[in-house]
Structures are given as structure tokens and as C-alpha cells.
Design goal:
The complex is a heterodimer of chains A (364) and B (446). With 364 residues, chain A is mainly alpha-helical. Chain A has one domain: Amino acid/polyamine transporter I, CATH 1.20.1740.10. Chain A contains 15 helices and no strands. The two termini of chain A are 25 Å apart. Chain B has 446 residues and is of the alpha+beta class. Chain B folds into three domains: 103 residues, no CATH class; 115 residues, no CATH class; 179 residues, no CATH class. In chain B, 52% of the residues lie in helices and 13% in strands. In chain B, the strands form three sheets. In chain B, strands 1-2-4-5-3 form a five-stranded antiparallel β-sheet, with helices on both faces. In chain B, a hairpin with a 2-residue loop joins strand 11 and strand 12. The longest helix of chain B has 31 residues. Chain B is elongated, with a radius of gyration of 29 Å. Chain B starts with a helix and ends with a helix. The chains are: A mainly alpha (364), B alpha+beta (446). Chains A and B meet through helix 6, helix 7 and helix 13 of A and helix 15 and helix 16 of B. Chain A: This is Spore germination protein. Chain A: Keywords: Membrane, Transmembrane, Transmembrane helix. Chain B: Belongs to the GerABKA family. Chain B: InterPro entries: Spore_Ger, UPF0353/GerABKA_families. Chain B: Pfam families: GerA (PF03323).
């Protein structure tokens, strides 16, 4: 049993990892066509979704999504939905990993084999995502506490840099009153979808208290604005489009004059690699548990521990195969498609959750 | 009991003990109606002669002598063979008066007395270490913890050694679940000889493959007392001056008893220093491999050039150099640990000065490597509890291996993996590594 503060960690995790999952890229593409309004709009929608999900799942104390679905929905639908969501959350992890392999090859070690890198990632995630949910939450907390100060330091460094062009930022802000696009909206809401992890972690919460809920829109909006505007400030309104991983290029533009490591890029890379690994472990853990939940019997009897590998090995193999097929452009497209479909999925989830809540209220 | 069975009793004990040079068997009283049997080496002969033999002749009547003997605290009246044997082997004298048998406490304890803590020495604060005798240890702990809530459960372990084991806890504060688990695990221990707390720790840990200690083994009574007050369970065993404390969290291994005594700011500083030391000793060798062989561009140009220049004469890849020097350092540490005090300094001189200096001049290792290895060794010694120190010593090789195979990625992956592994560990059902572990304890959270 853990306290409510872990909800905020789950939120923060997803919010920070957006840089890897192509959110800034989507926003930058639509910077003249409604990126900024969709940021504000998505803060609203995201908070609503976050609150809606925590509100509905609060009613099912100590239950994960599999238990809720299996109890309230027809067997077939619950199976289908659980497989769908498990697949999606595995996909989130895969995209994070694959873009990090790409980043590693491009920025850190061009001469290392991509197979070696992905193998390292897969090994860690597959082993660690089998830990108990509680343990993963503890690890998440510890690692966030280690990493967040460094991120704050780098942000301060970014803002006080004289090369930061506020005019470019102002230029983009003038496009405030344009019509938001679905793509940018779907991308921007990604940072709020940390709540989805509750689908499994709700099993471990004693009681969900939402006292500091105001922090979610505030922090979310701040992170979104920083995600979007800082690369613009560094590369200019037009030049920012040239970069696939605009944040890594941004970090590479910053220098630490007085430290033994000169380029901020390396600090940025290590911190984000840490975050990416934890986020993948988190996502895969949720995916795995949902998958197992789909095969759970009505009495809540779970498939055995051996089943883990029957899920993890195919997904790991799939990751390597996908990596083989995708070049950088296609990977970017996949990431964007994922973001788009994910948003629809979350709306669907909200509907199902309210239905389930209604059903269970009727039952009792 | 008829006189026939009494005779059997006597002959049974002397038969079992036949051939033991230190087994004493005497008849007391004018008509020899009092039998006295004991092991000379375990009993205090002064006690025996002053309180048993002399009064045995002075008292006019056997009845008076019997009530005199049974009035001693610690005297047990029994006829049970198993118990008699057990207690005689402990140092009790078996006195047989009329038809009844008495076990008279005349235990002689040969122990080193209360010494100074050597493995966990501190600057200020109490210097006592636990002694080799369980009674004295209980005394040391009770004196520091004067509360009726302090409970001591005694039991014996070891089929041959019959070692006394005491479980200590504060009844009001202890986590009952942990206590139950501890008692169960100790009861399940099945060994012949138990001689040290470390051994017991090994037997009551469920995981067979593990690298991190999930119990603290300490020699300081003040640490034991401090932990008991926190609601933990302590186990002390006879004939070994160490106590086991459980459950523990990772940060317990980085606390010295000094921290409480220091000014708060200094205490914090010392704590931070230890974690920095932990980080350095773990990552420095791995980082060296990365910087020298994988990503020299990470460092400032000057530093990269410095490393490259220092490595110019070295004829093999950086990881060979790292392994060579780390191994040399381990040898040096082990050698200076086990050597007799008189030769100890020689090892340090030969190893440290000659090897270090000559190796660089010969071009076998770089200068920077020598500095790095000493930094690694020194920061490893910062860890206050040696069990954790040993663990960290082993783990850094794993980090080097990851650095060899994956470079910078490997280091990050191994750090994340390590934290995940630590978070997955449990010490008696309690999380092993958790931020703010102390806060939640105060609030009564789980």
C-alpha cells in the first residue's frame, strides 16, 4: 500500500518523458497552425481526463483495470479492451526505446551497433517490469528525485543563456489565436496520460486523495510551454523544424563553461536515458499486467509467473523487428500515429470507466 | 524416586561423561548422601567450593542443605536427563540430594570483557562494543535501555553447540509482523554449530542468491539500542560480539552513530559525503573505461587529452588497465587485512609506493589510473558498515562490465537496474530502498 503522492510521480514521469515520444515534434510542426491554443486546450482536457479517471477508479478500491472490466463488462468486451490497452501501453514503451536507440546512435555513439543498445534496454526492461508494482513505484520515486534537480539545472541554464532568442518565442506566441488541430491536441494531451498507469497501480493505493490536484494543470502547462518554446527560442521559428529531436539539439547548444563536461547534451542524455528506461519499465509493467489480466478468470485467479515470458519475449522480438523496419522518418510517423490514436483511446477509456462505475453502483 | 533410579541417574551421567578429563564427580556429607557432578572447565571452582562443598560439610542436616541449595536464584530442580545433560554442558553443577536432582548455577564465563568497538569506530560517543558473552551483552543493552517494554526471548540454536540466542525488542514499538517472522525464521534454522551472528544472518535470509545485506550486523550496543527504540528487532548470540538488526533500509548502512552527536549541519554533510563516496566508488572505474575508450568527446578537450597523454605508453585497452589495477588494489586490501600487525606496513609500502610508482614509470598503467584507483579505494572505505562496503566492492566490477559492453549507455542502464533491484528487495517484508522511509514510519504509514 502506498500513499497518494505516487499519483503525482506517475504524472510527472509521463510529463517529463514527452520529449522522447515526439510531442515537441508534433507541436513544432503545427507551430503556426494552432500549437499554442492546443497547449492551453489540452491542459484543460488533460486535467479533465486525469481527474475523470482518478475519480472513477477511486470507487474501485484496490482493483486494477482487469478486475474492474472483468466484473462489469461482458467477458468478450473486457478481453478485447484489455488486450487493446495492453498493446497500446507496450507500444508506448517500444516507441520510447526505439527513439532512444536512434538518439544514442545519432548523438552519443555512432559506431556502436543498434542491436547492442536495444538489447541492453530490452534486458533491463524485461527483467525489471516483472518486479512488484510497489517496488516499481519506489524505484520511480527514487529516480525522479535523483533526476529532477538536474533537469531543473539544465532548464535554468537554458533560460539564462544569452543565445536564447526571446523574439522567436514572441513570434510564435502571436499565433495564439489560430484554430487548434487534432494532431497537436492529441500530442499535447500525452503529457497528462500518466494517469493511465493507475489502471494497474490502483491495486496498491490505500486511498486516493486529490488534495494537491491543482498542481497537475499548473505543472502540466508549464512543462508543455517549455517543451514547445525553448527549442523555438534556440533554433528560431523556422530552423526548429530541421531537427528531429529538437530538445537534444537544444541541449547540444548549451555549454557548461566551468564543469569537466562541457556539453550539456551529455548530462541531458544521461538524465533522459534514466527517465526513458524507468518510463519504459512502467509502461511495460502496466502492459504486462493488463495482458495477464485479460486472461484472468472471473474469480480473479491470475495466470502464473511463467506467463510473463510468453508476453515479454514476443514483445521484445517485435521491438527488434520494428527497429529493423523503421528508419528515422517512419519512426517519427509511428510516434505521431501513436499519439493520435492514443487520444481517441483515452476518450474511449473514459466512457468505459463511467459505464463501469454506473454498472457497479447499480449492482450494490 | 527410589534409590535404585537415583543410582541409575548417577551412573547414566557418569557413563555419558566417561573419558572426559574435566568431569568431576564427588560425594559430600558425612555419609556421602549428596552427589556432586560438574565439568571443571566450565564451572567456577571458587563458587563450587565456597557455596556447595563447604556448606555441605558444615550443615548438620541434609534437609537444611537442600533448602539452602534450592534458595539460590538460577537453581533448577529437575530429573529430566536431557535437561541435566544440557545444563551440565553449559557449566551448571548437578547436585543430587536424597532423591531429588538440582542444577546449580556455577557457570564460569571466559570472555574478553567489554572492549572498544574496532570495526565501527567513531570519534565521539560511546566506545563500548558488544562482548563475547550474552549475559554481558544483555547487561550492556539493558543499561542503555531502561524500560520495562524491552523484552528478551531466549532460545538455543545449534544441535551440537547449543548456542544461546536472545531476541530483543521493545514490546510497545516493535512491528509485530516482523517479530513473528523473525521468530519463525530463527525457529526454522537447522544447524549443528552456530558461532557468529553473521552465520545466523545467512541462515535466516530466505533468498539464496543475494548481494545486498538485508540485515545489519553490528558490534555497537548503542546502535542496537537506537534501533530497538525505532521498533526494530535485534538478535544477539552467545560467544560472539555482534548483533543482528532487522528490518533495515538501505540508508541504515550509511549511518554512523556519530551523525547524532554532530551538529546537524555537519551530520548532514557527512551523510552526503558518504553517498557521494558511494557514487564515486561505483562509477569511477566504469566512467574511466567509457571516457578512455568509448566517448572521449564527453569530457572537456583538455581532460580528454590529459587522459590520452597519460595513457600514451600503456600498451593495452583501458578496461585491461582498470581490471589490473582494481585487482591489485583488492589484493592489497585483503593482504593488509589478514597479515599480522608486524608485517602489515611492509605490504602497504611494497604495494602502494613501489607498485604504484614503478607501474606508471614502466608504462604499464597510466598515472590517472593510479589516482583513480586510490580514489575508488578510499571512497569505498567511507561506508560505515563493512558488510555494505564489501557489497559495493563487488558491484563496481559489474558496472565496469556494463561499461565495457555498452559504454555510457551501459553505465546508465546499470545504475537504473541497480536502483530497480534495490527497490525490489524486501527486508522482513519491509521495502529495502525507499525515499523518505523514516517519514512514513513516523506517520505510521506502511
Amino acid at each position: 500500500m502506498v500513499s497518494s503522492k505516487y499519483i503525482y510521480y506517475l504524472f510527472l514521469m509521463n510529463a517529463l518523458i514527452n520529449i522522447i515520444n515526439f510531442v515537441p515534434r508534433v507541436l513544432v510542426f503545427t507551430r503556426f497552425h494552432g500549437a499554442l491554443p492546443s497547449i492551453f486546450l489540452s491542459t484543460f482536457i488533460g486535467t479533465l481526463l486525469f481527474f475523470g479517471f482518478t475519480y472513477t477508479i477511486k470507487g474501485f478500491k484496490g482493483q486494477g483495470l482487469p478486475e474492474i472490466f472483468n466484473a462489469t463488462l461482458p467477458r468478450f468486451f473486457s478481453f478485447l479492451l484489455l488486450i487493446l490497452y495492453a498493446f497500446f501501453w507496450f507500444m508506448a514503451g517500444i516507441i520510447t526505446m526505439l527513439s532512444f536507440v536512434d538518439i544514442t546512435l545519432r548523438f552519443i555513439s555512432p559506431d556502436i551497433s543498434s542491436y547492442a543498445v536495444i538489447l541492453g534496454f530490452l534486458l533491463l526492461t524485461s527483467i525489471c517490469c516483472r518486479l512488484s508494482s510497489e517496488s516499481i513505484l519506489y524505484a520511480l520515486e527514487t529516480l525522479l528525485f535523483l533526476v529532477t534537480p538536474i533537469i531543473v539545472y539544465m532548464l535554468v541554464k537554458a533560460f539564462i543563456n544569452p543565445a536564447f532568442n526571446w523574439d522567436a518565442v514572441m513570434q510564435v506566441v502571436t499565433f495564439m489565436w489560430t484554430r487548434p488541430k487534432y494532431v497537436s491536441l492529441a500530442g499535447a494531451t500525452f503529457i497528462f496520460s500518466g494517469y493511465f498507469n493507475l489502471a494497474i497501480f490502483n491495486r496498491n493505493f490505500k486511498q486516493i486523495k486529490t488534495r494537491h490536484f491543482w498542481m497537475i494543470p499548473v505543472v502540466g502547462l508549464m512543462i508543455l510551454l517549455v517543451t514547445f518554446l525553448v527549442p523555438v527560442g534556440y533554433h528560431g521559428t523556422i530552423g526548429v523544424e530541421e531537427h528531429v529531436y529538437s530538445w537534444f539539439s537544444t541541449a547540444d547548444s548549451i555549454r557548461m563553461e566551468l564543469f569537466i563536461i562541457e556539453r550539456v547534451l551529455f548530462l541531458f542524455y544521461t538524465t533522459y536515458l534514466t527517465l526513458a528506461l524507468v518510463s519504459t519499465v512502467l509502461h511495460w509493467h502496466v502492459g504486462l499486467e493488463l495482458f495477464k489480466g485479460a486472461f484472468q478468470s472471473k474469480e480473479g485467479k491470475k495466470p502464473g509467473k511463467k506467463m510473463d515470458w510468453w508476453v515479454l519475449v514476443p514483445f521484445s522480438a517485435a521491438t527488434i523487428i520494428i527497429m529493423n523496419f523503421l528508419d528515422q522518418v517512419r519512426l517519427g510517423q509511428l510516434g505521431q500515429w501513436f499519439l493520435n490514436i492514443r487520444f481517441l483511446n483515452e476518450l474511449l477509456l473514459m466512457g468505459v470507466m463511467f459505464y463501469a462505475k454506473g454498472r457497479s453502483a447499480k449492482k450494490t | 524416586m527410589s534409590s535404585k533410579t537415583r543410582e541409575q541417574e548417577v551412573s547414566w551421567l557418569s557413563e555419558t561423561m566417561s573419558g572426559q578429563v574435566d568431569f568431576e564427580q564427588r560425594m559430600l556429607g558425612s555419609s556421602g548422601e549428596i552427589g556432586l557432578q560438574y565439568l571443571r572447565s566450565l564451572t567456577n571452582s571458587d563458587t563450587i567450593s565456597r557455596y556447595v562443598i563447604v556448606p555441605g560439610y558444615e550443615m548438620e542436616d541434609v534437609k537444611a542443605f537442600e533448602s539452602y541449595i534450592s534458595s539460590f536464584p538460577g537453581t533448577i530442580q529437575t530429573g529430566e536427563r536431557q535437561q541435566i545433560l544440557e545444563y551440565v554442558l553449559k557449566g551448571f553443577a548437578y547436585i543430587r540430594i536424597a532423591s531429588r536432582g538440582y542444577l546449580f548455577d556455577a557457570v564460569k564465563v571466559e570472555s574478553s570483557g567489554v572492549g572498544e568497538a574496532v570495526n565501527e569506530s567513531i570519534v565521539q560517543g560511546p566506545r563500548d562494543a558488544l562482548s563475547e558473552s550474552i549475559e554481558m551483552n544483555l547487561n550492556l543493552i539493558r543499561r542503555r535501555y531502561q524500560s520495562a517494554a524491552l523484552k528478551v526471548d531466549m532460545l538455543t540454536l545449534g544441535k551440537v553447540s547449543h548456542t544461546s540466542v536472545a531476541i530483543l525488542y521493545d514490546n510497545d514499538r516493535v512491528d509485530q509482523q516482523v517479530l513473528k517472522e523473525m521468530k519463525k525464521r530463527i525457529a526454522d534454522v537447522d544447524i549443528d554449530i552456530l558461532q557468529s551472528a553473521g552465520e545466523l544472518e545467512k541462515y535466516i535470509t530466505p533468498e539464496r542468491f543475494r548481494i545486498f545485506p538485508t540485515m545489519v550486523v553490528t558490534e555497537r550496543p548503542d546502535r542496537v539500542v537506537f534501533n530497538i527504540a525505532e521498533g526494530k528487532v535485534a538478535v544477539i548470540i552467545d560467544s560472539n560480539g555482534f548483533a543482528i538488526i532487522a528490518p533495515v533500509v538501505f540508508s541504515d548502512f550509511f549511518t554512523a552513530m556519530d551523525d547524532k552527536i554532530q551538529v546537524p549541519l555537519v551530520g548532514w554533510f557527512l551523510k552526503i559525503i558518504r553517498y557521494i563516496g558511494l557514487f564515486l566508488t561505483l562509477t569511477l572505474p566504469a566512467l574511466y573505461v567509457t571516457f578512455a575508450s568509448y566517448n572521449p568527446e564527453i569530457l572537456k578537450v583538455q581532460i580528454s587529452l590529459l587522459i590520452a597523454g597519460s595513457r600514451a605508453a600503456v600498451p593495452y585497452p583501458s578496461f585491461m588497465e582498470v581490471f589490473l589495477m582494481l585487482l591489485m588494489m583488492e589484493f592489497l586490501t585483503e593482504a593488509s587485512l589478514r597479515l599480522p600487525k608486524a608485517i602489515g606496513p611492509t605490504a602497504t609500502t611494497v604495494g602502494g609506493l613501489i607498485l604504484g610508482q614503478a607501474a606508471t614509470q614502466a608504462g604499464l598503467v597510466s598515472n590517472i589510473m593510479i589516482i583513480l584507483v586510490s580514489a575508488v579505494a578510499i571512497s569505498n572505505f567511507i561506508i560505515p558498515l563493512s558488510m555494505m562496503g564489501y557489497t559495493i566492492r563487488v558491484i563496481k566490477y559489474g558496472m565496469v562490465l556494463f561499461a565495457i559492453t555498452f559504454g555510457l549507455v551501459g553505465i546508465v542502464v546499470s545504475i537504473v537496474g541497480l536502483i530497480m533491484y534495490l527497490s525490489g528487495l524486501r527486508s522482513f517484508g519491509r521495502p529495502y530502498m525507499k525515499m523518505f522511509a523514516l517519514d512514513s514510519k513516523v506517520k505510521g504509514g506502511q
